[in-house]
Structure formats: structure tokens, C-alpha cells
């Protein structure tokens, strides 16, 4: 079931764009440190190419791409750029420190994009294809060219542009399904057609990049590979513009589990998939859908009596892959209040975390506090706690204390103390319910115009003493951010989540110099999908 063909011609390059297309999802902002952490994990799990960001978009994007370029040990580090020379030059500067750097440059080629978005004649676009790839090749011999909205591009024009891009020096040709419109047969036919008709097509590697608007991103990507593409652009948990991109864990496991009909292989260590999913969910605060393939919490749960009976008799009755193969560990009772630092560090290593210095001290102190309040501390509790520690390490606003009076005899009342840039602030507020009272305190202490778009609570484990995990999404001037907070007290978790989102919003505000904001807004709408 899991045989791996190892011939080089069947090797599929995994190009991860979690930090670029993924980070473009509304609300999925990551801090600089979070991006570095995700990049480090991607590198260690065997991703071939890390698309680290869009250097011209903002100072923050530039700095992240440059730092990832410096630190990455194995993967190629790639930056995205539009066709303009300023974009390409900035991208080249950002990837310069990389051991192996790639410039990924794109332009729209479909009639609708050329007419309405670019407002250019096809001949002008054709000239720009040659100019942009030539410019990029001055900096590196690893250049990827993408024809944005490729699946809605007229075939003759697509072939001309691909041929010109390869002649100009592009080594990877990506044909994106930017708007998630294609279906597997059609996408495969496009690759076959281009590879047959373009005379120099054997000089480049072809790549798929699929969006999930019709729920076919993974199927389309695999169809493209069947038709000769040997690079898949994907993201952890499938995050990305609108409905997202093809999910990395799904494409990898599809080729592994169904290697009999998809005889391709990748360099990904599949046992790291669960950890990657959890990390990306934690830093973006995007919850993973319970029934998500491979990494959803129900992906290996068997509820019905018939299924459980079958599983007890033989696991292959209902299980096509074993949970351990994607890094799922059986939930274990880990430690209690008597567990020491050594056991804690050991557990962190087992769960895939590497904490040191103050971060380790703070996480250990949080663990001790939790173990004092909660009888059983599970792996999931430790993960929620450490993810929160990582996400809040750079926060400017911190929760110091909170007490709430709730119950049937309102009004509900909260008293909150915050540490804001090292200064203490205290406020007492009423509200229409305890959560409202808590949020009113935050608004009084940190006045802002952000709108609460989402408030969601779920339990990390089972039992009435389970930690509550709260997600909050705030939006301000067209920018939205999401954050999570965890605590056995739902109100404390709510306050942490709201403050987490405010902290992220402050980072976004800093990034958004007027000039950058124009670029960012454009990029988040129609410029890049
Ligand atoms: O979806 C898309 O077309 C893109 C390109 C920039 C590759 O993200
Ligand atoms: Zn895209």
C-alpha cells in the first residue's frame, strides 16, 4: 500500500507557499518570528522549495524572506515578484543570502486578466514575459515563471508565452489555476498540450498551483502530475487565498498511500505532517476543520459501532494508513503537578518543540500553573500551552489578572489588569454577559476601532476541567487578524485571544506604511491568487 517508486523521473518537487499564498488568507497574519519558525520546520520536514514571501509587498515581507534565506539549510528559498523590474530587483536582494535562491516571477495571460486587470494588449504581455525572466536570470539561474490565470488562458498564447519564458531562461514553468476553476481532466489536458506543442518544453520543469474554490485543488494537482508536471505548489492545512490552495499533507499522502496508481514520490518526512499542521494552525490561529483529511482531529477516529468492531478485528478494515505514519501520537496522560523540568523538556521534544531560555522557563511555569489547576494534563494541553507561549512571546499587551462576577443576577462585571508596553493599567466594566464585560475592559484599556468578526470556543480535551481554546478575529480598515487563547477558565481564554488579536493588529499597523498598504491591499484582492 505504501511502496515508493524511487526513480528520479517520478520525483515530485514540493514547493510550499504557506508563507506567501497561505499568509495572504484574510486573517492569517504571522509575525516575523512565527514565519521563521514555520520555515525552519518546512526545511527540516523535507520541503524542496520554500516560497517565503513577496519582498516588494512590505518591509516585513522583505525582512522575513531575507532572514529565511540566511537560515535555511536545505531547501531552495524563493521570493515572489510581479513583472516589474523594481519587484524583481527587490526579490533578488531578499533571496541573495540563500544557499540556493529562486525568483518566482509572474504575469497574467488570460484574456479577462489582460483586458481588465493589466489593461494591456497580449503583445505587450508577451514582451514583458521575456523581459521579466531575462531580468531575473541576471540574478540567479533558478527562475520560475507563472502565467497567472493560466487555466483560463487561450492555448496558442499560453504556448507562445511558455516557449518565450523558457528561451529567456526560466527553469520552472508554473501554470496556475488561480481562480480554482479547472477540473482534473481539463488541467491534465493543458499540461499534455503545452508539453507537446512547445518545442523547448523539455528544458523546464512544469509545476501545478491550484486553488480550492470548487474543492478540487488536490485532485487537479495530482492530475497535473499525471500529465507530466513534477512540482506541486501547496500549503500546510491548505490555507491560501479565498478557499485556499492544495493541501501539502493531502498531496503527499495521496501519492504515498496510492502509489500503485500515483507512482510518484517526494522528499517529505510524512511523520512531521501533524506537527506542521499544528504549528501553522497555532501561528495563524486558523482552526483545522475536524474532518480535514490527514490532519483533522477526527481523521483517524472511528465512531460507529460497525467500524469500531471492524477495527478491533483488523485495523485495515477501515484504516488506509496508520495514524503514526503522519505523526499522530496516541493521546497520553502526560504529567501532573509533580512532574519536573526534565520530564517536561522530554515531552516537548517528543511533541516536536525546541524551546530554550526564557521561552522554556515561561512554558514550564505555565505548565506548573496548569497542573495545579487541572488533574490530568494531556499532550493536547501541553501543545495548546506551548503554542500560546510561542504566539505571545513578542506581545506588547499582556494579561496580568482578571476577575469576573457572572451569574443570573446581572449585570456581569469584570476587573482586568493589563501590562501595556511595561506599564500597568486597571479597569472595571459591566457588560451584557461576562464575555462582553471582559471585552469592554480591553476596549477601555486599549481604545481601538477594530470590529469583532468571530468569537469561537472549543474544548482542548474532554472533561469539565478541560482547557477552553478561544479563537477571536478582529478587523480594522480592511485588515483582519485571528488569534487563539487557551485556559481552563473560558473567560481568561477569551481575554487572551482578544489581546492576541490586538497584538497582531498592532504589528499589521506598523507594517502598513501608506505606500505598503496600497500594495498590500492590491495584492490581497486581485493581483495575486
Ligand atoms: O494563484 C496564483 O496564480 C498565484 C501566482 C502568483 C502563482 O498565486
Ligand atoms: Zn495562488
Q: What can you see in these coordinates?
A:
The chain has 529 residues and is α/β, with parallel strands linked by helices. The protein folds into 3 domains: 11-284, Aldolase class I (TIM Barrel, Alpha-Beta Barrel), CATH 3.20.20; 305-391, Recoverin, domain 1 (Orthogonal Bundle); 394-517, Double Stranded RNA Binding Domain. It is built from 18 helices and 16 strands. It has helices at residues 18-22, 32-45, 59-71, 85-95, 111-118, 122-137, 155-168, 184-197, 217-226, 248-257, 273-284, 305-313, 341-351, 357-373, 379-392, 434-445, 490-511, 514-527, and strands spanning 13-16, 49-53, 76-81, 101-108, 143-148, 172-177, 205-210, 231-234, 333-335, 377-378, 397-405, 412-420, 423-431, 451-459, 468-476, 479-487. Strands 1-2-3-4-5-6-7-8 form an 8-stranded parallel barrel, surrounded by 7 helices. The chain has a 3-stranded antiparallel β-sheet with strand order 11-12-13, with helices on one face. The protein has a 3-stranded antiparallel β-sheet with strand order 14-15-16. α8 (184-197) packs parallel to α9 (217-226). Bound molecules: 3-methyl-2-oxobutanoic acid and zinc ion. The site of 3-methyl-2-oxobutanoic acid has 12 residues, from β5 and β6.
Helix and strand layout, with pairings?
Layout: E1 13-16, H1 18-22, H2 32-45, E2 49-53, H3 59-71, E3 76-81, H4 85-95, E4 101-108, H5 111-118, H6 122-137, E5 143-148, H7 155-168, E6 172-177, H8 184-197, E7 205-210, H9 217-226, E8 231-234, H10 248-257, H11 273-284, H12 305-313, E9 333-335, H13 341-351, H14 357-373, E10 377-378, H15 379-392, E11 397-405, E12 412-420, E13 423-431, H16 434-445, E14 451-459, E15 468-476, E16 479-487, H17 490-511, H18 514-527
Parallel strand pairs: 1-2, 1-8, 2-3, 3-4, 4-5, 5-6, 6-7, 7-8
Antiparallel strand pairs: 9-10, 11-12, 12-13, 14-15, 15-16
Helix pairs in contact: 2-3, 2-11, 3-4, 6-7, 7-8, 8-9, 11-15, 14-15, 16-17
Zinc ion binds near residues 21 and 178.
